[in-house]
């Protein structure tokens, strides 16, 4: 095993790689409900029980772990520490395996990709990560990943800005239409068929992505604005939505309406798109006579200070 860190003049250790994160539900079908109230999760250093480290390396890993940004709930990440040539044709990549769940996880055979700063694939290899042992809840475990020439697509590897990432398996399930019972019972068969065909013709959302697509917007006689959206779930698991803040803009880019919607037991099944109509009462209309020949509606992102 190579020395973990090469330092000159007592320089502080430095992370030369970037971080990549995935949903623990996507990767492992694992979540922890108690993390829902936590916005940021700081992981504690966890050394494999069979590793024997010098005090200097122990300090360096502790220092670098503290430099890692906090994770969101239900995430697993790979945070690049260093990349060095072990011998000709063999490269040792050291990275933290980070677990934001409150419970321990065990990884198994997993394909990882080595990427440059522009996410171009430099190499790919399948590892048996059960060797890394059980990763405790809310912890970071350093681990070594060996790549050889046969795993790499280039002989020129960057010294900085690279990252190691999980390669998730593409969904084998075709993206399809998901109708709420009330819609299924009241919508005409021809309209159901049109929606079904549209969903199947659209490019599916990216893996793990949830996005909104506008279908129809119209001002009613009572002054209310009805906006029908297609909520598209690219996850392998069902999702539940409770609060959706929406903003509508017209053809001129002006804000027409803005408001928050509370949904009860609203679920979008895995790899499906569900239509739903959001009704903005006239009190929330901010522009009369809006040009709705072209429009867009989107969830309002929370602003961070």
Automatic annotation (TrEMBL):
Region (Disordered): 1-40
Protein name: Accessory Sec system S-layer assembly protein
Polar residues bias: start-end ranges: 17-40
Signal peptide from the UniProt entry: none
InterPro entries: Sec_acc_SLAP (IPR030911), SLAP_dom (IPR030910)
Organism annotation: Alteribacillus iranensis
């Amino acid at each position: 095993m190579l020395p973990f860190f090469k330092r000159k003049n007592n320089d502080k250790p430095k992370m030369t790689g970037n971080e990549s994160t995935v949903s623990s539900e996507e990767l492992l079908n694992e979540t922890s409900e108690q993390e829902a109230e936590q916005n940021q999760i700081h992981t504690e250093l966890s050394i494999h029980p069979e590793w024997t480290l010098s005090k200097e390396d122990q300090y360096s890993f502790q220092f670098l772990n503290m430099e890692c940004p906090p994770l969101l709930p239900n995430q697993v990440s790979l945070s690049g520490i260093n990349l060095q040539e072990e011998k000709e044709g063999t490269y040792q990549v050291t990275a933290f395996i980070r677990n934001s769940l409150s419970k321990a996880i065990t990884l198994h055979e997993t394909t990882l990709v080595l990427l440059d700063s522009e996410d171009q694939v430099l190499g790919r290899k399948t590892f048996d990560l059960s060797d890394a042992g059980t990763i405790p809840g809310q912890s970071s475990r350093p681990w070594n990943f060996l790549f050889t020439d046969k795993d790499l697509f280039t002989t020129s590897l960057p010294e900085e800005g690279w990252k190691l990432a999980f390669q998730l398996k593409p969904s084998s399930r075709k993206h399809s239409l998901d109708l709420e019972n009330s819609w299924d019972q009241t919508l005409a068969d021809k309209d159901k068929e049109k929606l079904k065909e549209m969903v199947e013709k659209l490019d599916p959302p990216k893996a793990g992505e949830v996005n909104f697509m506008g279908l129809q917007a119209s001002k009613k006689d009572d002054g209310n604005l009805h906006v029908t959206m297609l909520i598209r779930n690219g996850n392998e698991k069902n999702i539940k939505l409770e609060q959706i803040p929406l903003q509508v803009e017209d053809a001129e880019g002006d804000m027409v309406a803005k408001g928050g919607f509370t949904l009860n037991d609203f679920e979008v099944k895995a790899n499906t798109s569900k239509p739903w109509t959001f009704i903005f009462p006239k009190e929330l209309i901010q522009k009369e006579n809006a040009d709705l020949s072209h429009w867009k509606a989107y969830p309002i992102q929370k602003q961070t200070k």
